[in-house]
C-alpha cells in the first residue's frame, strides 16, 4: 500500500486543529452557522473530538479536530491521527497554528493511519487523505511511512507465507527496488562458512536456515544493521505453550524493523554505506532439533551451553554480530524481539535499548523524543556477567532464576561485539496489542524512527 500525501488542490477541505483553550476564539472567527452547528454537536475541542460542518447545500464545508490540552496530548501519541479514521473520505488540508514538530507528527500519523494489511482479504479504502502541511519534509515522511508499512507487512504475514525462504525473497525484492546487492548462505553451507549457531537453531525446520546479507552504497560512513529473523518460534524441544506460541509469527520483528529502516535509508539516499545482516530461521521440532544441554561453538569461538532451546534468538544473532564485528562499522545496531522480560519491564509500547557509549545513547533518546518513537535505555550491568557464565562453557544461553532477562541477553550479545566501539541493541516487541492512533492492531516497527533521526549526528552525514 502506498502511504503518500494527496496532491495539492484548491478543493481540499480545511481541517482546523483547535486546542481546548482556543475553542472559543476559533468559534468567534467562524460564521454564525458554524458556531451554532458546533454548539449543537457538543464540540468541546477535547483531544481527538471531530466536527464536520456542512455547507448551505449539504456538502462538507470544513472540519475541525480537537487538540485538547497539554496534559491530554502528553498521554497520546499521534493524537490528530484519530481524525483520519473519523472523517468522511475526502482530501483535507491542515489549518491552525501548529508548531513544526506538531505538524510533522500530525502528518506522519495521518500517513501511518492509512496503512491496511490486505494480503488475505483486500486492503479496503485507506480513508481520508491529507495534503502535505506547509513546512514538512513530505518526501522524508513518505519514506518513513513506506519503511514502516514494509515492516508491518512482513510481521503481519504468517509463517506459512513468511518463512526463511520467503523472507529472503522479500529482501531480494527490496534490493531490486534500490539497486542493492544481496547474497545468502543457506543450509549446510552455513557450517562450511562458520555460522554454526544459525545452522543449529534452524536445521530442524523444513525451510532451510540462512544468513542473508544486503549491501547498499559505496561511499560515506558505514552502518550495519542486524535483525533477528526467527520466522516462527515453537520454542524448540523446550516447546512453548499454545498461548505463548500464538504470536510467534512476529518473532522476526527485529529483521522486519531493520529492513523497514533500510528501505527508508535507501529511499532517502542517505550518504552512507549500509550493510544489513538477517539470520533467518524457523525454530522447529524434529529429530534434527538442537537439545537442552548441548554445547555449541559459535563463529566467535565462544562455546555456549544450551539451557533452554527457547532462547534461540540470541544464538542466531551472535553469529551474525560476530560477522559484523570482523569488519567494524562506524555504527552497529541489532534489533530483536528477544525477551519477555523487556515487556514486563516497559510494556509493549516502549523499546528498551542498550548502548556502549553515552553519546550514542543520548543521540537515540533525543531522536526518539523528536519523532514520537519512545525508547528507554537499560544498563549493561557488569555484575550480572557471571549470570551468563555456566562453568562448563563460556556462555549460558538461558540463565536460571529469570532475573534481569533482558539485561543478561544484552550482555550475552555484547560478548560477540569486541571490535566495534559504537554498538546499540534494541529488545523490541514488534506488535501493537490493541488499536491506537496511527497504529492498528498487529505488527509495528519500534525504534527505527529514533535511529533514523539520530544518524546524521552519529555518522556526521
TrEMBL record:
Signal peptide range in chain numbering: none
CDD domains reported for this sequence: Peptidase_M17 (cd00433)
GO BP field: proteolysis
Entries under Gene3D superfamilies matching the protein: Leucine Aminopeptidase, subunit E, domain 1, Zn peptidases
Ranges of residues in domain Cytosol aminopeptidase: 308-315
SUPFAM superfamilies according to UniProt: Macro domain-like (SSF52949), Zn-dependent exopeptidases (SSF53187)
Domain of life: Bacteria
Family: Belongs to the peptidase M17 family.
Protein name per the record: Leucyl aminopeptidase family protein
Organism of this sequence: Psychromarinibacter sediminicola
Lineage, highest ranks first: Bacteria, Pseudomonadati, Pseudomonadota, Alphaproteobacteria, Rhodobacterales
Amino acid at each position: 500500500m502506498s502511504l503518500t500525501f494527496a496532491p495539492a488542490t484548491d478543493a481540499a477541505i480545511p481541517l482546523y486543529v483547535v486546542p481546548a483553550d482556543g475553542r472559543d476564539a476559533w468559534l468567534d472567527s467562524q460564521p454564525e452557522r458554524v458556531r451554532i452547528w458546533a454548539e449543537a454537536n457538543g464540540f468541546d475541542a477535547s483531544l481527538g473530538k471531530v466536527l464536520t460542518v456542512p455547507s448551505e447545500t449539504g456538502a462538507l464545508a470544513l472540519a475541525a479536530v480537537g487538540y485538547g490540552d497539554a496534559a491530554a496530548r502528553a498521554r497520546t501519541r499521534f493524537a490528530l491521527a484519530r481524525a483520519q479514521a473519523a472523517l468522511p473520505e475526502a482530501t483535507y488540508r491542515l489549518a491552525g497554528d501548529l508548531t513544526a514538530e506538531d505538524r510533522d507528527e500530525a502528518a506522519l500519523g495521518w500517513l501511518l493511519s492509512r496503512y491496511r494489511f490486505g494480503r488475505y482479504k483486500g486492503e479496503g479504502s485507506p480513508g481520508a487523505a491529507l495534503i502535505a502541511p506547509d513546512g514538512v519534509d513530505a518526501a522524508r515522511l513518505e519514506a518513513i511511512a513506506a519503511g514502516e508499512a514494509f515492516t508491518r507487512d512482513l510481521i503481519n504475514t504468517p509463517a506459512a507465507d513468511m518463512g526463511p525462504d520467503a523472507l529472503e525473497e522479500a529482501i531480494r525484492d527490496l534490493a531490486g527496488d534500490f539497486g542493492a546487492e544481496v547474497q545468502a548462505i543457506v543450509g549446510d553451507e552455513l557450517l562450511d562458512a562458520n555460522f554454526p549457531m544459525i545452522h543449529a537453531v534452524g536445521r530442524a525446520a523444513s525451510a532451510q536456515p540462512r544468513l542473508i546479507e544486503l549491501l547498499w552504497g559505496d561511499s560515506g560512513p558505514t552502518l550495519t544493521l542486524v535483525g533477528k529473523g526467527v520466522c516462527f518460534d515453537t520454542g524448540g524441544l523446550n516447546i512453548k505453550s499454545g498461548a505463548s506460541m500464538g504470536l510467534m509469527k512476529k518473532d522476526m520483528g527485529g529483521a522486519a524493523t531493520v529492513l523497514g529502516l533500510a528501505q527508508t535509508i535507501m529511499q532517502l539516499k542517505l550518504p552512507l554505506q549500509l550493510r544489513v545482516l538477517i539470520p533467518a530461521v524457523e525454530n522447529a521440532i524434529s529429530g534434527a532439533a538442537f537439545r537442552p544441554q548441548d554445547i555449541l561453538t559459535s563463529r566467535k569461538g565462544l562455546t555456549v551451553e544450551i539451557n533452554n532451546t527457547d532462547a534461540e534468538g540470541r544464538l542466531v544473532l551472535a553469529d551474525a554480530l560476530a560477522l559484523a564485528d570482523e569488519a567494524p562499522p562506524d555504527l552497529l545496531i541489532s534489533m530483536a524481539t528477544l525477551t519477555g522480560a523487556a515487556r514486563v519491564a516497559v510494556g509493549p509500547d516502549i523499546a528498551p535499548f542498550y548502548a556502549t557509549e553515552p553519546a550514542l545513547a543520548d543521540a537515540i533518546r533525543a531522536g526518539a523524543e523528536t519523532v514520537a518513537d519512545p525508547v528507554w535505555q537499560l544498563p549493561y550491568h557488569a555484575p550480572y556477567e557471571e549470570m551468563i557464565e555456566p562453568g562448563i562453557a563460556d556462555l549460558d544461553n538461558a540463565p536460571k532464576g529469570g532475573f534481569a532477562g533482558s539485561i543478561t541477553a544484552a550482555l550475552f550479545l555484547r560478548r560477540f561485539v569486541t571490535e566495534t566501539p559504537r554498538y546499540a541493541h534494541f529488545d523490541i516487541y514488534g506488535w501493537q496489542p490493541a488499536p491506537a492512533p496511527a497504529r492498528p492492531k498487529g505488527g509495528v516497527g519500534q525504534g527505527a524512527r529514533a535511529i533514523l533521526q539520530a544518524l546524521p549526528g552519529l555518522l556526521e552525514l
